[in-house]
Amino acid sequence: MGRDPRWLLPLIALSLGGCGGPQSALDPAGPSAASLHRLGIIMYVGAALVTLLVTVLMLVPILRPRERPVNRRLFLWGGGVALPLLTLTALVPYVMTVGHETRAATTSNQVSVDVTGYVYWWDVAYRRPDGSRGAASANELHIPVGEPIELFLHANDVIHSLWVPSLAGKTDMIPGRVNRMVIQADRPGIYRGQCAEYCGLQHTLMAFDVIALPRAEFDTWLAGAAQPAREPATPELRQGRDLFVRLGCGVCHAVRGVSEARLGPDLTQVGSRRTLGAGTLPGGVGNIAGWTASAQHLKPGNAMPSYDQLEGPQLRALAAYLESLQ
Amino acid sequence: MRQRGRLHGQALCVAAFSLLSTIPGPVIAQSDGRWKSGEEVYVKVCGRCHESGVGRVIKGRAFPPQAYGAFVRHGHLAMPSFRSSEIDDRALQALGEFLARAPISTQVDGDAERGFALVASGAYGCAACHAIPDIRFPKGNVGPPLIGMAGRSLIAGQLPNRPDVLAAFLRNPPALAPQTGMPNVGLSLEQARDIAAYLYTLEAPNGP
């Protein structure tokens, strides 16, 4: 009865359940994350074996105290020098090859994206073939499945670090430098990323999503993202657009065809985004209204002021206009 | 002459009694058994206020039966007291037992658990503007906190807080309160009822 190991099954299932999800280095979805995952497994198993060996050696004199004295030379030279030398000689060259995919060369016709870290959000801009800034988004990176994507990492203010555990290791974003990184998703899905270098008060609320789509869907998305924002169709949406202009939203935010500023996230497609405020809130008109009216309450210290001087109907019109930008 | 007088007196007494017994309701309060059940008392007396949104919801709160009796005999805030000539002791006991077991009023025609799931999903942005007791983040401060919604008198400061009004307001706030900042987030009628049912579980922090 007491020997029945089946009671362990739910425990194992429970602990393995924590390994999956949209943000997990233990559930790799691309070659770079997979090789890191392999290295991780080798390190865990190796560490477990070493712990086991040391424990056994420690127990021998306790359990069998009358044994003859140990061979000191074997212990010192064998365990102290030869064993670490052998292990490290094998491990170091292997470790150096791990994550090689993160810096792999790409061919000229592949997707290249500039990702810039700002205090507490990410600017995402797709490079045109001539290298100029094309379609832009924020806090969301759409990529085609199964292709290496070249990312150029910049920082606008302080050091940030881009980390999508399911796709690749971390790469820092350093002001005044451009770091190159290649990521690839082998299956469609949404992978969550997070700033991995403490960057200030709202470092916690600086997340983003990588959305991996089949190539055809990605092409459709990219073509749509390069279009100007759609014209407001109803009087309320027109009022919202006018408020956007009059209140000076366009001083910080770009809406393709309406404003071009780049101090804050590009809002050309804000209505279709999964999150607002870099992972602070889900999308949707209710959250857009709440965020607009109280951004400083929800994410204190971010660069967006709370527009708390609006009348109710104005707030609704502005939120409806932003939600219509899809 | 004297005999006639006595006869007259008797006739008058009989007439008076038969007249009295035809008067319905509270006047003949002593008559035990006038109330058939605790539920009848609730529907005919308590329900006047507690089912119409005037008084707060008292079903589904599972107090000990005597507690309801104390409220009835002594009154509470705007609630009047009721004498034993109006609700006799046995009927009161039955009322207490009925209310102690009664589930929350079916007038809130929604599922509070489903409603909470909708609120907690974040998709409708409730918590981006309102502080909601069961949600840790966000705790918005654009609109009023929703704690105590079960006993609040007015919705948006201008509409009576009744289940049907609340559900309609949640579905399309600007239609009922044109100056509100609360947008229409596209809830179906069923979703609005579920959320209303959830909101009616939010009691004020210091109890009744």
UniProtKB/TrEMBL annotation, chain A:
SUPFAM superfamilies: Cupredoxins, Cytochrome c. It holds the Pfam family Cytochrom_C. One of its GO terms (molecular function) is copper ion binding. Keywords: Copper, Electron transport, Heme, Iron, Membrane, Metal-binding, Oxidoreductase, Respiratory chain, Transmembrane, Transmembrane helix, Transport. GO terms for biological process: ATP synthesis coupled electron transport. It catalyses: 4 Fe(II)-[cytochrome c] + O2 + 8 H(+)(in) = 4 Fe(III)-[cytochrome c] + 2 H2O + 4 H(+)(out). The keyword Hydrolase does not apply. Residues 108-224 form the Cytochrome oxidase subunit II copper A binding domain. GO terms for cellular component: membrane. InterPro entries: CcO_II, CcO_II-like_C, Copper_CuA, Cupredoxin, CuRO_CcO_Caa3_II, Cyt_c-like_dom, Cyt_c-like_dom_sf, Cyt_c_oxidase_su2. The keyword Membrane applies. Gene3D superfamilies: Cupredoxins - blue copper proteins. It is a multi-pass membrane protein. Residues 235-326 form the Cytochrome c domain. Coiled coil: none annotated. NCBIfam families: CoxB (TIGR02866). Subunits I and II form the functional core of the enzyme complex. Electrons originating in cytochrome c are transferred via heme a and Cu(A) to the binuclear center formed by heme a3 and Cu(B). This is Cytochrome aa3 subunit 2. It comes from Microvirga brassicacearum. The lineage of its organism: Bacteria, Pseudomonadati, Pseudomonadota, Alphaproteobacteria, Hyphomicrobiales.
From TrEMBL, chain B:
Keywords: Heme, Iron, Metal-binding, Signal. It comes from the Bacteria. GO terms for molecular function: electron transfer activity; heme binding; metal ion binding. Residues 1-29 form the signal peptide. Pfam families: Cytochrom_C (PF00034), Cytochrome_CBB3 (PF13442). Transmembrane segments: none annotated. InterPro entries: Cyt_c-like_dom (IPR009056), Cyt_c-like_dom_sf (IPR036909). Residues 110-203 form the Cytochrome c domain. PROSITE patterns: CYTC. This is C-type cytochrome. It comes from Microvirga brassicacearum.
